C-alpha cells in the first residue's frame, strides 16, 4: 500500500498508521487532521471539498470541530471506514485517489514542521492506573508505602486513582515546577515545610482515549468492548513531585504531587492501526484466576510497542537516553482497565483518558521513571554532557517516543506516535 505522499523509510507515520490530531497554522483556527510521513492532512478541508462523499454515515460536521471528540464518539464501524477511506485517498490507483488533484492537495497538505499541534481531544475525565508489576513493586518499596510493596489487591484488579483533567496538556507545553508541602528531614524535629519540589520526576505511560458512545450511569462495559470504546492510544508523561506525593498520599493516594501537569502526545493512534502488533499479557503464574468481568476472551489483548525516553539536561544539546521499555510489560490490558472502571456503573464518554501507569520492565534499562532509575535519588547518573542527575532540574527537557515497526512488501509499515516532550520551568516565586 504505497502512498503518493513521500514517506521516509524510518518514519513513524506510514500509510498504515493514519493517526488523528488537531493542528493550526500561524495562529489560525484549530483543524482536525491526520499525518502521513512529514505531511499534515487537513481533514476539514477534505470534508468541505467532498472527499468523504460515499463514506456511509459520514458527517462533515465532525471535522468542523476544534477537537476530535465528535468524531471519536462515532461507532467503530464509522471510525474504521473513515480511516480506511483516508488510506485510499492517498494511495495511487484507487477509485478515490487524490493523486494529481493539485488544487485540493495544495490547500489540504502542510509540512509537519510548519504547523502547531494541539490537545487532540477535550479530556472530560482522567484516571490513572498502575498496571506494571515491576513499577508497582519498585515504587512501593522506594516510597516506603505501608505493607508489602505490591498491594494485596493488585493481583486481583487494575488499581487506579482519579487524576486531574484540567492540567492535561499537549506535547511541548512547558511544565512549571510545582510547590507543595514537603516532609521534614528524617533527622529533623521540625514539621513539614512548604516550597518547590526538589524531587521532580517523569513517568512514561500510555494513555487510552475513550471513544464510541461509552456507557450510561449504572451500565457497564466489558473487556470485549475495548475496540468499540477506545478511540486510540497516545504517549503520556505523568509528571510527579515525589516528596510532595510521598507526604500526602496515605491513605487517599496522590494529589498535589501529581495534579500540576500531565503531558500527552498530539497524535492519537487507533487500535486498528495497532492490530498487526497484538501480543499476549505477561504470564501470571501462581496468581488466582481473574474475576469473570476481568477475563479476556482475546489471548492477545495488548500490543508490542517499543518505548524510548531521554533527558536533555539544561545547557546541553545532546540527549541522554534513559529508558527502553515496551507496552507488553503491562500486566493488565486497556480492556481490563475499561471493564474495571465501569463495573461499578461509572459512565465513560468520548475524550475520557485512561493512563496505563508507569511502563517499567524487568531490566535495569527499562525502568520508566527517575524514582526507579536512581533508587529514589540515591544513585546519580551522568548526562551526555557530564552533569549529574537524580531528579529533573529547571531547564531539563524530557522526550518520549513510541513505535511499532514492521515492513510490508519491503515498504515501511511503521506505526509510531511521534514525540511527547516537556521542558521544566522554575517554580513561581
UniProtKB/TrEMBL annotation:
Pathway: Amino-acid degradation; L-phenylalanine degradation; acetoacetate and fumarate from L-phenylalanine: step 6/6. Residues 129-402 form the Fumarylacetoacetase-like C-terminal domain. It catalyses: 4-fumarylacetoacetate + H2O = acetoacetate + fumarate + H(+). The active site is at 135 (proton acceptor). Ca(2+) binds at residues 128, 203, 205, 238. Residues 177-196 are annotated as: Disordered. It comes from the Eukaryota. Residues 16-120 form the Fumarylacetoacetase N-terminal domain. Its cofactor is Mg(2+); Ca(2+). Belongs to the FAH family. This is Fumarylacetoacetase. It comes from Naganishia liquefaciens.
Amino acid at each position: 500500500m504505497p502512498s503518493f505522499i513521500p514517506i521516509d523509510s524510518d518514519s513513524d507515520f506510514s500509510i498504515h498508521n493514519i493517526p488523528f490530531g488537531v493542528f493550526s497554522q500561524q495562529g489560525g483556527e484549530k483543524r482536525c487532521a491526520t499525518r502521513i510521513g512529514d505531511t499534515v492532512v487537513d481533514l476539514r478541508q477534505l470534508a468541505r471539498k467532498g472527499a468523504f462523499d460515499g463514506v456511509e454515515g459520514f458527517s462533515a460536521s465532525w471535522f468542523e470541530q476544534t477537537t476530535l471528540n465528535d468524531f471519536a464518539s462515532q461507532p467503530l464501524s464509522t471510525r474504521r471506514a473513515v480511516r480506511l477511506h483516508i488510506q485510499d485517498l492517498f494511495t495511487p490507483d484507487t477509485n478515490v485517489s487524490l493523486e494529481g488533484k493539485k488544487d485540493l492537495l495544495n490547500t489540504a497538505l502542510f509540512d509537519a514542521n510548519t504547523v502547531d499541534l494541539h490537545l487532540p481531544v477535550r479530556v472530560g475525565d482522567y484516571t490513572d492506573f498502575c498496571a506494571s508489576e515491576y513499577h508497582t513493586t519498585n515504587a512501593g518499596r522506594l516510597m516506603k508505602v505501608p505493607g508489602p510493596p505490591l498491594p494485596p489487591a493488585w493481583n486481583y484488579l487494575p488499581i487506579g486513582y482519579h487524576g486531574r483533567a484540567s492540567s492535561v496538556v499537549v506535547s511541548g507545553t512547558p511544565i512549571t515546577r510545582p510547590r507543595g508541602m514537603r516532609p521534614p528531614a528524617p533527622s529533623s524535629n521540625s514539621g513539614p515545610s512548604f516550597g518547590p519540589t526538589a524531587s521532580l520526576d517523569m513517568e512514561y505511560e500510555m494513555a487510552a482515549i475513550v471513544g464510541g458512545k461509552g456507557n450510561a450511569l449504572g451500565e457497564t462495559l466489558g473487556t470485549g468492548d475495548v475496540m468499540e470504546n477506545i478511540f486510540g492510544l497516545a504517549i503520556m508523561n505523568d509528571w510527579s513531585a515525589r516528596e510532595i506525593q510521598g507526604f500526602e498520599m496515605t491513605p487517599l493516594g496522590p494529589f498535589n504531587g501529581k495534579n500540576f501537569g500531565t503531558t500527552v502526545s498530539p497524535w492519537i493512534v487507533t487500535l486498528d492501526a495497532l492490530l498487526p502488533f497484538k501480543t499476549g499479557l505477561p504470564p501470571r503464574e501462581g496468581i488466582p484466576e481473574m474475576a469473570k468481568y476481568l477475563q479476556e476472551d482475546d489471548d492477545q489483548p495488548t500490543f508490542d510497542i517499543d518505548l524510548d525516553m531521554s533527558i536533555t539536561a539544561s545547557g546541553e544539546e545532546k540527549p541522554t537516553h534513559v529508558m527502553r521499555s515496551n507496552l507488553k510489560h503491562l500486566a493488565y490490558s486497556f480492556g481490563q482497565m475499561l471493564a474495571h472502571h465501569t463495573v461499578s456503573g461509572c459512565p465513560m464518554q468520548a475524550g475520557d483518558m485512561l493512563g496505563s501507569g508507569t511502563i517499567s520492565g524487568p531490566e535495569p534499562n527499562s525502568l520508566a521513571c527517575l524514582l526507579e532509575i536512581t533508587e529514589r535519588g540515591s544513585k546519580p547518573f551522568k548526562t551526555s554532557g557530564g552533569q549529574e542527575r537524580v531528579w529533573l532540574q529547571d531547564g531539563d527537557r524530557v522526550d518520549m517516543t513510541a513505535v511499532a515497526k514492521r515492513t510490508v512488501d519491503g515498504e515501511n509499515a511503521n506505526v509510531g506516535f511521534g514525540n511527547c516532550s516537556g521542558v521544566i520551568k522554575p517554580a513561581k516565586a
